[in-house]
Amino acid sequence: MSVVKLNVKQLRDAAVNLKIGDKVLLTGYVYTSRDAAHKRIKALIDSGETLPYELKDAVIYYAGPTPAPEGKPIGSCGPTTSSRMDVFAPEFLDKGLIAMIGKGERNQAVRDAIVRNKAVYFCFVGGAGALAAKCIKSCEVIAFEDLGCESVKRLYIEELPLIVANDCTGGDIFSEGRAEYFSE
Length: 184
Known about the structure:
With 184 residues, the protein is of the alpha/beta class. The protein is built from six helices and seven strands, in the order E-H-E-H-E-H-E-H-E-H-E-E-H. The chain has a five-stranded mixed barrel with strand order 2-3-4-5-7. Strand 4 (99-102), helix 4 and strand 5 (120-123) form a beta-alpha-beta unit.
């Protein structure tokens, strides 16, 4: 397993070389989005309206950050359970999304879309929202402000520590980890 420092702008080219278990320190702009925001983005896609950000080469962080304490850009910003976005992820990937950040496994349709689009799914440790906040240097609400913590935010992250959970060759850290555990 390797540790790779990557900028979001490098992900399109780098994704084909990432393998499950690789550790990545990611820097660049990412967008927070959860269930309610995904539903609205899907409605915008269906109606042909402009999206709050370009999906092509974007990274979505499944998070709903807490309000920022004084002097900080953001409060705690841990990942939410990714499977809740599985109904939307294949279409978003087909429209150019390069990576997702969350926690937990993805369904087969999402894993197939990751392979088909040469994308990647990263996991961040659940319960470590304060650690994530230390890596977030700026936070701007860009859409759906009425959703509060679930509004879409544009974050600038520096060296957010991630683990490749699903790679573009079909690798799945969850199924492979279980198989290894039960074979012992």
